[in-house]
Amino acid sequence: MIILLSRLTEEMTKIPATLATIFYAFLLSLYFPQLFSISKQEFNEVLYLMLPVILLPDILNISVKELKNYAKEIFYLAVVSVVVSIAIAVFVTPYLLPEYGFTIGMLVALYAMLMATDAITVSAIMSRFTLPQRLKIYAESESLFNDVTALILYYFVALPLLQGSSVDVLSINFTVLKVLVLSSLIGGVSALFGFLALKMLRNPFDQFLVIYLIVISSFLLAEHFHIAGILSIVVSVIVFKMLVERENRLHPKTFEFSNTVKTYDAFIDLLKNIPAITKHEFREYKKEAMFLGIFANAVVFVVIANIIDLSLLSHYIYEIVVVFLITTVIRFGSLSVLVISSKLPFYWTYALTLSGMKGALAIIMVHSLPKDFVYYDLFTAVVIGNVLISTFLYTFSLMFHIKRYAKLYESDSSTNGTKDTKISELSKDLVEVLEKDPISQAYNRIFIEDVLSREIARVQRYKVELSVIGLKFDFSAISEQQQRAFLQRAGEIIQKGIRQNDYFGKVEEGHFIVLASNTSLGGAHRLAQKIAEEFVEVLDGDIKYNFGVTELSETDSIETLFDKLKDAIYKSIQNKQTIEIVV
User: Fold this and answer.
1) What pLDDT, in 10s, does the model give residues 267-318?
2) At what angle do helices 279-305 and 2-13 cross, to 10 degrees?
3) 332: left (phi over 0), alpha (psi -120 to 50) or beta
4) Angle at 518 between CA 513 and CA 519, to 5 degrees
5) To 10 degrees, what angle do helices 376-389 and 317-341 make?
6) Phi-psi group of 441: left, alpha or beta (phi > 0 → left; psi -120 to 50 → alpha; rest → beta)
7) Residue 368 DSSP code
8) Is pTM beyond 0.90 here?
9) Residues 228, 148: contact at Cβ < 8 Å?
10) Which of 42, 191, 344, 487 could form an SS bridge with 239, CB 3.0 to 4.6 Å?
């Protein structure tokens, strides 16, 4: 009920469902405490259960190419920024809270919990806003990878210091290396075994379970050996994706099963040639993972709402606000360095700062403090208070900020925040030579489907708009020579009418499409009208043509999108209209 009510609130008010979920769950727990009763241990268990389910859809939509392109920036955000920010906060805090006798170990523990952004909260909040893809990559990649840095500092530096153990640079370096290597190894091996298991299964439900077993097993194994479970999840999903994409690229056709596998060599040959899952199946599983992730996310925020202790928070309100201001100012400063050095628009600093929500992982970390720790109640209040303030205040501030800079962000979406497009233009020119039809200058079907697949993933991940225009020509009344001349002229008109980040493609003889990225259905309809008007002015009247216009929904695949375009074009022909829209 809470989940449905929260999503309804989001549809009506545009307030992210995350905030509504926490609010409604807190009200119910306040007035009907018998409905919700959860201990700290149960909270930790729920989060451990939900974490792989929540992270899977986000990591499935991460592009390895994007990670490589922005590796330096992500390393800065996930490692350098966290370490430097914690060091600054440890130095500053004793001057702002002098009444407490904090040791270095105590402050490292506190800020390790709070300097790293929470992957669950950030992905839930950022998915609701239309922002440049590069900016979202920064925010979401940071939240995935900086947890590893924070967990290492917390469990292998802060807690030993709290317990009176000595920590030196050599031991820290060895621990970091051990955690990174073992976590990556567990993730990679889990992905490989899961990939091989998929080759033996044909039932879609069984395959879907295997994908979840990959992330759950990698997480549980890593946690069992007290290393970075989140890193193991990330590595397992990325390796699994790479294996699937590589196989689909090398063996795109399906494999026929044979019941005559009698030798070891035949079995190995079967494993090599039988596909684990097809591109279509992989897209469908990503959609199903997204729906499960939404549900799991809501469960976590319902649980968070039920551990709020108002009396404890009010008692330490001053300390909560001071620590919140320290973390916010330091975060703004560290992000300013990245934005300025990368020559990005400075207003991106505000969006990235406001994407620094804390979440359930910080609460789990504070619950792991020794129960006899002298500042246990203070740290618990500060962490939960900062989780709530960052979730609500940052989100509402981000909504205001995006609304204020909406036009600038819309412009940035086509350039990724940078005006230096020489390299991308050069790459696009090379692709045009290799992948374009020489007459119409439209991209061929293989290339356009590849682009469309990436655009669908981008829409589902970043919640941006994508509309598609279908165009069918009837050449029955003209000669082949006239057809060639017409297609050349039509291609020129369409290329002139679309933007640099749009794509014009040929899907079959006489059938073309235009991918209009970051464009609403109405905008695509106006573009189709503009092209149709120019056709009337310059093209032969004996040629018949019909347009179909549609937009991508969250549940669409390439196949369903093409079906919608065919329906629109068919209705256009039946109704004797030039353009028809199908939603």
Assistant:
1) 566 566 666 677 667 767 777 777 777 777 777 777 777 778 889 999 999 9
2) 100
3) alpha
4) 60
5) 50
6) left
7) T
8) no
9) yes
10) 191
